[in-house]
Amino acid sequence: MLGSSVGRRLHARMELVGAVCPEISATLVASRYTPRERNLLPGWPMDLWRAYIDESYNSQAFCVGCVLAPEFIWQRFTKAWVERIALENRNSVKRGFPPISRYHATDCANLKREFREKNGWDIPRQVRLTKRLCGIFAEHHPEAIVIGGAPEDIRSISKGDVKELMYSACMKMCLLEIAGVMHRRPPGNVEIIFDRGNFTRIAMEAFTAIQKEKNNTREFDCLRSMEAKGWEECAALQAADFIAYQGMQRVDGSLKGKREIKKSLQALIGKRVPINIGYYTKQNFLDILQMKRNQDADRPLDEGVHSGLEACVGGFHPIKGRR
Question: Tell me, what CATH number does 191's domain have?
Fold first, then answer.
């Protein structure tokens, strides 16, 4: 539904609407690095970045979340994350409860499956773990991006599998925003890893559509590769799950007209973790259809198009260069 050229034009039209935290910029702050890391910034690993992507949804909202950082940041981030989960498991075993296989945001937040009360979990423990994970984000400052929308909005104007359509639209815009982040950096490349599952085919189709644009623009040269992996072989996907869930809760609230921000997201914002959360409106989807009609009729792509993506945390930054 969202073609790559159409998506780039909509991306260029993004504007901050009702932002709750406009002072949060999508910037890795050099002052957060250790002196040794600051010495490394001009060279070594800053040219290789990794992006980890996962989805989160309920009956009202569907989101794709991404965490993005240089490889050397991921080495430290993943180590801290794995150590925290291992500590939780040691505490569980000491009390006679089974360990968890991994962190899963929805299950943890709702005390389900491995996080159910009979396994030694309750609200206070869930809150403590969430605070610790927020602390890992605060220490290492990966970029966080969440793109979402209401499945009902796309259902009313398009045929097909609603979840697949939402995933495709959100994934393509997420890839555009990753490219936007990288265009504000020194030259570098991004290896993208997404959670293997029901949307694997849709994810690869989205990446292929973006890659085809390389013939027309250099904007996406930084997106080196994309592959599916599972949480069992890639712990950083659990961090993507964490961010996708935080974003989904905020998008769900925004769609319902609520401005209250959950405490966990407040913690990330308060610690100046660079996070942008935005969502498609029904008008966006209508405008995408109009853009496609304009494209087919060889008219100006944005003729009759006026909407921009809604931003409920942070702001979005159009890619500079050719359109």
Answer: 3.30.420
List strands edge to edge, sheet with 189-195. 223-229, 189-195, 48-57, 62-70, 143-149, 275-279, 310-313
Regarding beta strands 223-229 and 275-279, do their DSSP bridges make them parallel or antiparallel, or are they unpaired? unpaired
Cβ contact 296:7 at 8 Å: no
Neighbours of 86 (CB within 10 A): 11
Could you read off the pLDDT of 89-110 as tens digits, one per residue? 999 999 999 999 999 999 999 9
Whether residue 136 lies inside any domain: the answer is no
- Name 217's Cβ contacts closer than 8 Å, sequence gap at least 6: 321, 322
Range of the domain at 202: 4-29+47-69+143-313
Tally Cβ neighbours within 10 Å of residue 259: 10
Domain count, the chain: 1
Token pair belonging to 210: 């973006």
Task: Write the pLDDT tens digit of every residue in 219-273.
Answer: 888 999 999 999 989 999 999 999 999 999 999 999 999 989 999 999 999 999 9
Is 317 strand, coil or helix? Answer: coil
DSSP 275-290: EEEEE--HHHHHHHHH
The model's pTM is: 0.86
Q: Where are the beta strands (DSSP E) in 134-210?
A: 143-149, 189-195
